[in-house]
Automatic annotation (TrEMBL):
<feature type="domain" description="Transposase Tc1-like">
    <location>
        <begin position="59"/>
        <end position="130"/>
    </location>
</feature>
<dbReference type="InterPro" id="IPR009057">
    <property type="entry name" value="Homeodomain-like_sf"/>
</dbReference>
<dbReference type="GO" id="GO:0006313">
    <property type="term" value="P:DNA transposition"/>
</dbReference>
<protein>
    <recommendedName>
        <fullName>Transposase Tc1-like domain-containing protein</fullName>
    </recommendedName>
</protein>
<dbReference type="InterPro" id="IPR036397">
    <property type="entry name" value="RNaseH_sf"/>
</dbReference>
<dbReference type="GO" id="GO:0015074">
    <property type="term" value="P:DNA integration"/>
</dbReference>
<dbReference type="GO" id="GO:0003677">
    <property type="term" value="F:DNA binding"/>
</dbReference>
<dbReference type="Pfam" id="PF01498">
    <property type="entry name" value="HTH_Tnp_Tc3_2"/>
</dbReference>
<dbReference type="InterPro" id="IPR002492">
    <property type="entry name" value="Transposase_Tc1-like"/>
</dbReference>
<dbReference type="GO" id="GO:0005634">
    <property type="term" value="C:nucleus"/>
</dbReference>
């Protein structure tokens, strides 16, 4: 866009016409033209901030490691990156690069893998109870208020994933053991009392 503005001004266009064409303020075009006449260059001057410590290759490598093995911890990613890059990079920088790449640490979706026998049993149960009345369903108590851990596995497992990818296959952790959840209790109480 800078060189397009310079080309328009060199073709004898007025500054306000170039600003209107490029949808910028006239002062932007004025400063750009003065800079070009002084330095014969329209490129942006280097900023005054600190240089990026990671290269684009480092950033790509970090994102690739996190996407390939989503369950790696941040420290494991750090050790892989420092082994590949040959220098250590701060935790904040690694976190910033992952966020720039669209990856955030989130808890995975946990589901119990169903065998074909489980699928058939669930389908049979759904078909069997599809014509139940409200009174019949009134005798069933659904509860999911308590979580009972049989194994002491309360550690939070995190994965690296981007926004909107919650239910994609790589982001789902399958567990075969009981993790608590919904309990179906038949109360056996008559509908009239």
């Amino acid at each position: 866009m800078r060189w397009r503005a310079i080309g328009m001004l060199q073709a004898a266009a007025r500054q306000y016409a170039a600003a209107r064409e490029l949808n910028v303020h006239r002062s932007v075009i004025h400063r750009l033209w003065n800079h070009y006449q002084r330095d014969q260059n329209a490129s942006r001057r280097p900023g005054s901030g600190r240089r990026r410590i990671t290269t684009t290759a480092d950033d790509r490598y970090l994102l690739q490691c996190a996407r390939r093995r989503r369950t790696l911890t941040e420290r494991q990613l750090a050790s892989q990156l420092s082994a590949a890059a040959g220098r250590s990079i701060s935790r904040q920088t690694r976190s910033r690069r992952l966020h720039e790449g669209g990856l955030f640490g989130r808890r995975p979706v946990v589901r119990v893998p169903l065998s074909p026998a489980h699928v058939r049993a669930r389908l049979h149960s759904a078909r069997e109870h599809r014509s139940w009345t409200r009174e019949q369903w009134g005798r069933v108590l659904f509860t999911d208020e308590s979580l009972f851990n049989i194994k002491n596995d309360s550690r939070r497992a995190m994965i690296w994933r981007g926004p909107g990818t919650l239910y994609r296959a790589p982001n789902i952790v399958k567990r075969d053991h009981y993790r608590g959840g919904r309990l179906l209790v038949w109360t056996g109480i008559a509908a009239n009392g």
